[in-house]
Amino acid sequence: MAKRALLIIDFQNDFVPGGALPVPAGDKIAPRVRDLVDSGHFDLIAATRDWHPADHNSFKEQGGPWPPHCVQGTSGAELYPGFDHSRIDHMVNVGSQPEHEGYSGFEHSDLEQWLREHDVEEVTVVGLATDYCVRASALDALRLGLAVTVDPAGVRGIDVEPGDSERALREIEAAGGAIAPPAGSRA
């Protein structure tokens, strides 16, 4: 029987205000993530996290665009404490080699295999950041033939260029994904 999974993308300490690479209002998704984790609507819950070595290629010191963040074994790389981590059925570490970008939760990970082994056909995606890792993970899930819904109340973006997050959601929609109606709406 087909199953549904919640994918929590990179909801980590370094991506919330006060972290090394904060997503504006990144911590504000915590109530929605908590509600979804506790909802009972999902058969399985998976979480991804950036898990970079100290010499990761994306870091400015190595010629990349970002400050060091989510370095393996640091508190910044740990999941944000705003929801019950014990409910996570599978943890995926991405970007764990210097040359692996790690934007998608499917990149150089066992996420696809784990979802297929558990007969998952539908995923709801939440996490950080809408215009980077959420976008890449949702698009990869669609390419793999999964039905994808992004919950906009459970994502926030960086918006390096104004509107990047909205463009990412439209790109996911154009690729066949669904954008959930706002929580509490009757749509």
Describe it for me?
The protein has 187 residues and is of the alpha/beta class. Helix content is 22%, strand content 21%. α3 (130-143) runs parallel beside α4 (164-174).
Structure summarized in a few sentences:
The protein has helices at about 30-40, 110-115, 130-145, 165-175, and strands spanning about 5-10, 45-50, 90-95, 120-130, 145-155, 180.
Per the CATH scheme, the topology name is Rossmann fold
Describe the oligomeric state of these chains in a short phrase: single chain
Helix run count: 4
Structural class by sheet pairing and helices: alpha/beta
- End-to-end separation in angstroms reads 27 Å
What is the highest CATH level, the class?
Answer: Alpha Beta
Tally of discrete structural domains:
1
In CATH, what is the homologous superfamily? Answer: Isochorismatase-like
User: Which blocks of ≥5 consecutive residues have pLDDT under 50?
Assistant: none
- Helix percentage range: 10-25%
